[in-house]
Amino acid sequence: MGLQHMRIGQVAELTGLSLRTIRYYEELGLVIPSSRSSGGFRLYTETDVARLRLVKRMKPLDFSLDEMKDVLGVLDALEDTEPTGPPHADLLERLVMYREAADVRVIALRDKLAVAEEFAADLRREVRRRKRLASQHQ
Question: Terminus-to-terminus CA distance in the chain, angstroms?
Fold first, then answer.
């Protein structure tokens, strides 16, 4: 069974990324279409879609484009190296560093979310209070 190829529009639907963003990520080398159709259309595989989804998950954690490229490069290199030996250990160490950075950033996002939820709750209470006051004066 051969690989199923998808055009960029289908990939955009699957990933929630815009066509422009996918093309931009291609320009940066974050993802490269697996092939092109005879008409020159970009064709992607599930592996390419998974790669784009990974990039999308890094974005809210404020990973820079260079960091995203490095994470993807580390993951690619880990696929291509033997699980024993110095190259693999060095790559794994870099991946652990990114995992730790992601963990720290997730905690920071949770803290920001808690503050935002408090603010939204304050606004809901204020709206209820104002509506009660308005209904009492009618």
Answer: 72
pTM confidence score: 0.81
| Pairing outcome for strands 6-7 and 42-44 | antiparallel
**What is the pLDDT, as a whole number, of residue 100?**
98
Do 69 and 130 reside in the same domain of the chain? yes
What radius of gyration do the chain's Cα atoms show? 22
Say which CATH number the domain at 1 has.
1.10.1660.10
Give φ, ψ of 35 to 5 degrees. Answer: -165, -175
Look at residue 115 in the predicted model and tell me its pLDDT: 98
Last residue of a domain, one of 43, 58, 73: 58
Domains contained in the chain, number: 2
86: left (phi over 0), alpha (psi -120 to 50) or beta: alpha
The reply to whether 70 and 133 lie within a common domain is yes
Phi, psi of 3 (to 5 degrees): -70, 140
**Residues of the chain with confidence (pLDDT) below 70:** 1-3
User: The tokens of 12 are what?
Assistant: 């955009």
Whether residues 49 and 106 share a domain: the answer is no
